[in-house]
Fold this protein.
Amino acid sequence: MAPSRVYSAEAVVLRRNDLGEADRIVTIFTPRLGKLRAVAKGIRRPTSRLGGHLELFTHSRLLLAKGRELDIITQAETVSSFIGLRSDLWRATFAYYAAELVDRLTVDRNPEPVVFDLLIRALDGVAVDRDPELALRFFEVQLFGALGFRPELYRCVRCEEVLGPSANSFSPSAGGVLCLSCGQSEPSARALTTNAFKVLRLFQSGDYPTASRLNIDNPLRRELANVLEGYAEYLLERQVRSAELLTALRASTPEKASTG
């Protein structure tokens, strides 16, 4: 018996590109198949039954048919649309950033069930939590670890000395935190405050219930963003596009940035 050309998949929509007059190529992330691109035929027509289920960041159940080059999405049902992302530019931009990281840090058709679960939890947190940026930063640290890029936060990455809470620096190229003496000889190292050091460790521990109760002031918020966005940029060897939008939003609405 020939294998079935039709299969089902749970998925989150990471990216969309128009194709022809009515179709779209949709980049989705699934737990069993990883990241893949598929065609949604006729999705841009007003009568399409797929449109609402394949919006950016939507968590859906899909039915797909295998194609010669790209598979074809034939049915879709929304699991969660993360409604809080639809009317808040800050929350939507945080979701863009999370999706871009997953898109750029993963390879096609490589199963990553842990990453899928992290992404679902991150989108939910960014959509509803009182501090959506905190949910995003927690996701970043957890994502780096899940994909093999876990930054070293407990021992100096150069001399392996056990790190205290102060006089440290973070180096993207070294892959983590440097002690005072090693940091002085590392050009890419940037000073790391005690509070940022402790928060990064808390994020890495995976204790989000505790992390979500933190009250982060503006200087610490900016420091965490600089450290983690800088590390992502180093891993990707390019700037994260949605990080540029976050920077512009912070500059234009500083009062909003203080609460995420």
Remarks:
- The CA atoms of residues 199 and 211 lie 8 Å apart.
- The radius of gyration is 20 Å.
- The chain has two domains: 6-81, 84-257.
- The chain has a mean pLDDT of 95.
